[in-house]
Design brief:
CATH class: Alpha Beta
Number of helices: 13
Structural class: alpha/beta
Number of strands: 8
Distance between the termini: 26 Å
Low-confidence stretches: none
Strand content: 15-25%
CATH topology: Rossmann fold
CATH architecture: 3-Layer(aba) Sandwich
Strand order of the largest sheet: 1-2-4-3-5-6-7-8
Shape: globular
CATH superfamily: Alpha/Beta hydrolase fold, catalytic domain
Mean pLDDT: 96
């Protein structure tokens, strides 16, 4: 799908793309870390079959979206609201996958009159909480430790090398993730169609260099600027019980602090396999809430 841009009130551009149906209920899709709007190509067929329009958005510093120095997690709802206005949307749903989860919840909190339903798929919890960091594997713990202690080292050791490899050989990164995670994630990531889409998304994610991904990591490590317990709208969590990247404890932590959200645990699914294999069921469930 062609890259589109919207002009924001402060003069920045926001990159986005359409997937699924041309008309129908619209869901904004928020990509993972790292990721881009092109990640949502994985939802295209399932969304089109269900009459759902997906608008996938690049966060600041990723893909075609201009950077926003000093941004916070809670700045994102303003960008989404401005894009919705530009598209003539009064109400819409939001879907956050992995690192997009906190941004989806921020929109649910800040835009209760506009967000119809919120889907969080294998979403990252507030990793400022020590228990949630401890539940993660050592690479994630190391990254968040660097984010807290010395951000320039995070960029030097992780951001810049990752950006360079994503530009030159993104498929190699995905094959490495497949080997590291194993199980259902390995099966899905080595599929040629998935490997092609996610390689394209990774390359696009680092179009402007590593700054967007590094900034996201720093924001995740800080306490959230909003209370998830104050969200009044409908929220549905999905989590794979075999997720080795964002453990199920993250969605359990949020569920325990929110107003009766629904939480769906899927046996034998991992971090990548869940949103890919279960896209039809996830979209059907979210659309049924409209």
């Amino acid at each position: 799908m062609a890259a589109l841009t919207a002009n924001l009130p402060d003069g920045r551009r926001l990159g986005y793309a359409h997937y699924g149906a041309r008309h129908g209920t619209t869901f904004f899709y928020f990509h993972g870390l790292p990721g881009s709007r092109r990640e949502a190509r994985l939802l295209h067929a399932a969304a089109e079959a269900r009459g759902i329009r997906v608008v996938a958005v690049d966060r600041p510093g990723y893909g075609r979206s201009d950077p926003l120095p000093g941004r916070s997690l809670y700045d994102w709802p303003d960008d989404v609201a401005a894009l919705a206005d530009a598209l003539g949307l009064a109400r819409f749903g939001v879907i956050g996958v992995s690192g997009g989860g906190p941004y989806a919840l921020a929109c649910a909190h800040a835009l209760p009159e506009r967000v119809i339903v919120t889907g969080v798929v294998c979403g990252l919890g507030p990793v400022a909480e020590p228990a949630l960091r401890r539940a993660m594997r050592w690479p994630a713990r190391l990254v968040f430790a660097l984010a807290a202690i010395y951000p320039p080292l995070l960029n030097a050791l992780a951001g810049t090398p990752l950006a360079q490899l994503a530009h030159r050989r993104p498929a190699s990164l995905l094959r490495l993730a497949a080997r590291f995670n194993g199980g259902p994630d390995r099966e899905v990531l080595l599929r040629e169609d998935v490997l092609g889409i996610l390689s394209d998304s990774l390359r696009e994610a680092f179009l402007q260099g590593p700054a967007g991904a590094v900034q996201d990591t720093l924001l995740y490590r800080r306490p959230w600027e909003f209370d998830p317990g104050a969200i009044t709208g409908r929220v549905i969590f999905w989590h794979g019980e075999a997720d080795r990247i964002v453990p199920c404890l993250h969605s359990a932590y949020l569920q325990a602090r929110m107003r009766q959200p629904e939480r769906i645990l899927v046996p034998d699914e991992g971090h990548f396999s869940l949103p890919i294999r279960h896209a039809p069921a996830i979209l059907s469930r979210l659309a049924a809430d409209n």
